[in-house]
Amino acid sequence: MKPFESNRFFSALSVVMIFISSVLLAIWSIKNTIALRNILLISGVVIGLLILKNNRRLTQLIPNRPTFSQFTPLILSACMFIWVLLHFLFFSQDEALQIQELRSTWLRVVQACFIGGVTGLIVGATLNRSKFLWLGIFSSFLYLLFDYIGAHIDSGLFFMPDYYFSSPFGNKINTVLMGNIFIAAICGSSAYTLTQNHIKLHVTTYLYWLAGVIAILFCFTTVIDTRNGIGVALILIGAWFLYIGAIALKHQFDARKFNTKAVFITVIPLLLIIFFIQQHLSINRGWIHFVDDISLAVQIKDVPNWQDIKKYGYPKLSSGEMVYPNNYERAAWATAGIESISQNPLGYGLLEHSLGRVIRQTYPESVIQSSHSAWIDYGLAFGLPGLIFTLGALISILRLATRSLSPNRLIAIWVTMGLLITFTVAEVSSKHAIEILFFCIGLLNTMLLAKSPEKFE
């Protein structure tokens, strides 16, 4: 094949790979899309292999030969996949269900990680390409908003407490995961763009960021009403505000003049934070005695209500008020989950409902299935080795990003922090959530391989 034709073929494959990844991000958390996801995953693997086959073009995407340590996140991911197989072979406690997960979920996880890695090589060459990648998530939230508007017209209600069950995402957690990945990615992308250009206002980038964040925050506060979603989002946006504010302040001191655009760019997100906090508090009353609820919930041996709420009911605080159900359940179940990990350091072997099987060894009356914290459920599934490999992969991305010169380094930092926090406060430890997690690990790892941002457009 002639060089010109080869380059054109490689460019076409690259566009297709970005499109596949963007569509996957759009539908990964949407109900009834498993067949389409499987088709896209298989297609992505095939396209990815064709891209990797073109070694000459790949060397142009990676200016300098990467060292072994630069692939630490992918190496640790591979170790995780090997551990899952070893756990099935030597430590399985439910072979039938575990092999079912191996053939379905874990097969897709490996495919997703590979596709993420190849996509990262492609988008790593320029910051602009990554914007098309995150557009997939934005489109899924636009779909959610259109569906919500239809439900609002039918019911006449602005706030529908149970709408999330019938929404395209099917539950709150899918919304939280995808929304915060988008917010984190846009925070990182816009932070790099604005700081590299001395806080100049790029209207298209800023409006894209603003529209996406407003849509997702509205979904978190009103459409779905999720406290962990709005909490994680505000942490990410707050970090963005502090980072951009510090850079803007330093630039104004250096230039010794007042920059109204810098103030405008940083104040708008601050106003958004204040507005959506007020909106969220007006709907969700779970913050009123949050600390008292948690203090009572961690006393799992003295207060057994968490084991079976239908049987025991919710306990009352010393003030005589009943605990806020969501606060009490999540804190008590998380405490029980941590205790169970210490008693089962190698894990039970199943991504779904390992806590429900392990907890009854100590608390026979317990009927709970999940701790509502993904890292705890993940640790219950594959023990301390699983946590070490997976958390190690994410932490190594942060380490690589702080040392990288890639234009995607801030995206990697924000998205990784978003994943770490979201998986701490939300029950996203099974099926497509793990596929998304390892897709992001592969993506962020290879996005950081580029080392000369001045060469990129």
Which quaternary structure do these chains form?
A: single chain
Cα Rg:
23 Å
Elements, N to C (H/E):
HHHHHHHHHHHHHHHHHH
Number of helices: 18
Please give a structural write-up:
The structure is a single chain. α1 (3-27) packs parallel to α6 (127-155), α2 packs across α5 (95-123) and α10 (227-255) packs antiparallel against α17. This protein is mainly α. The protein is globular. 73% of the residues lie in helices and 0% in strands. It has helices spanning 3-27, 34-53, 55-61, 72-90, 95-123, 127-155, 163-166, 172-196, 203-223, 227-255, 260-283, 290-297, 309-312, 325-343, 354-359, 374-403, 409-425, 432-447. It contains 18 helices and no strands.
Structure summary:
The chain is mainly α. It has helices at 3-27, 34-53, 55-61, 72-90, 95-123, 127-155, 163-166, 172-196, 203-223, 227-255, 260-283, 290-297, 309-312, 325-343, 354-359, 374-403, 409-425, 432-447. The radius of gyration is 23 Å and the shape is globular.
Summarize the helices and strands and which ones pair or pack.
Elements lengths: L2 H25 L6 H20 L1 H7 L10 H19 L4 H29 L3 H29 L7 H4 L5 H25 L6 H21 L3 H29 L4 H24 L6 H8 L11 H4 L12 H19 L10 H6 L14 H30 L5 H17 L6 H16 L10
Helix pairs in contact: 1-2, 1-5, 1-6, 2-5, 4-5, 4-16, 4-18, 5-18, 6-8, 6-9, 8-9, 8-10, 8-17, 9-11, 10-11, 10-17, 12-14, 14-16, 16-17, 17-18
Which features characterize this protein?
single chain; mainly alpha; 18 helices; disordered C terminus
